[in-house]
Amino acid sequence: MNEMSMLKISNKVTIPNAEIEFHAIRAQGAGGQNVNKVSSAVHLRFDIKKSSLPKLYKEKLLGLKDQRISNDGVIVIKAQKYRTQEKNKDDGLDRLQNLIKSVMVQHKHRKATKPTRGSEKKRLDSKTKQGRLKALRGKVDSG
């Protein structure tokens, strides 16, 4: 297979275009007569379970809570941003590529930090000051 018939995910992972289905559909929304006549939008379908993706990718994709992934493990992307079918096809492929890449991004684990002694003192001082200020707002005795 040549380079153009594959969707590159990483240096080692690619998806053959044969695993990606495209269906031309009519776009929704504004566009005048063009929208009523031309099927420029594209439905892209990619079956995760039947794909040649590595097992780790499949598990992470199937574990995602994403509305674009059906219960059967099929990614459905509707691309209708552009007026031409070719541009919408490319947009759909880009979005599929980004979705698959996103599951392999390692997020840094956040370490909880303690507030410094100085910031803690500053916070307590400001609370005391605010309390005094509010106490002064009370009713004044006319006695």
How would you characterize this protein structure?
By secondary structure, the protein is α+β, with helices and mostly antiparallel strands. The chain contains 4 helices and 5 strands; from the N terminus they run E-E-E-H-E-H-E-H-H. The longest helix is centred in the last third of the chain and has 19 residues. The protein is elongated and about 90 Å long.
Instruction: Output the strand order for the largest sheet.
Output: 3-4-5
Biggest beta-sheet profile: 3 strands, antiparallel
Assign an overall shape.
elongated
SSE sequence, one letter per element = EEEHEHEHH
| Unreliable segments of 5+ consecutive residues | none
SS summary, helix count: 4
How is the topology of this model organized?
Elements: E1 6-8, E2 14-16, E3 20-25, H1 33-37, E4 41-47, H2 55-63, E5 74-79, H3 85-102, H4 117-135
Antiparallel strand pairs: 1-2, 3-4, 4-5
Quick take:
The protein is α+β, with helices and mostly antiparallel strands. The protein has a domain of 100 residues: Double Stranded RNA Binding Domain (2-Layer Sandwich).
Comma- or semicolon-separated keywords:
143 residues, alpha+beta, Double Stranded RNA Binding Domain, 3-stranded antiparallel beta sheet, 5 strands
